[in-house]
Amino acid sequence: MNRRSPRLWILPVSVLAALLLGLLPLPAQVQGLRPYWLALVVAYWVIEEPDRAGLGFAFIVGLVADLVFGALLGEQALRLVIMAFILQRFRAQLRFFPLSQQALAIGGLLLNDRVVSAALHLLLGQPQLPWTYWLAPLVGMLLWVPLFLVFEALRQARRLR
């Protein structure tokens, strides 16, 4: 039996969970605080499994997200590809940062994602998101450490079997 096959399910299940968390209805008061779950999941896989997750992975996941969320086709794909490109460029340094510094870097990437999203909305003449949406990168940054630790625990448990 192949030793790698038992943990192949973690990547697609994590993407599916991120898509479902993005669809979860929230009250209007906290809607803007929703972290970009998909970006967090893609970031983890690009950093930790570059052979399985790269620009193509980010593009396909973004297109699926555009279809699932009913967004402009290609918007999330573009946003995730930009993030994955930056992560690939600095992966060697980022992997060896302490988790707190990784969280700061992820927060910066999520903030960059908001800037790209705002620029796309402006370019296409769509209404801009409310100011509360600019707080979501902070929430994503705070969630990076627990998310990273959960994924690492799942991957380590599969390696031990």
Automatic annotation (TrEMBL):
Query: Is Transmembrane set as a keyword in this record?
Result: yes
Report any one BP term from Gene Ontology. Answer: regulation of cell shape
Q: InterPro entries from the xrefs?
A: Cell_shape_determining_MreD, MreD_proteobac
What membrane topology does this protein have?
Multi-pass membrane protein
Any GO CC annotation of this UniProt entry: plasma membrane
Q: What is its main location?
A: membrane
| Pfam families with a match to the protein in the record | MreD
State whether keyword Cell membrane applies: yes
Q: Which UniProt keywords apply?
A: Cell inner membrane, Cell membrane, Cell shape, Membrane, Transmembrane, Transmembrane helix
Cell compartment(s), UniProt: Cell inner membrane; Cell membrane
Explain the purpose of this protein: Involved in formation of the rod shape of the cell. May also contribute to regulation of formation of penicillin-binding proteins.
Q: Which family does it belong to?
A: Belongs to the MreD family.
- Protein name per its UniProtKB record: Rod shape-determining protein MreD
- Native source species: Luteimonas marina
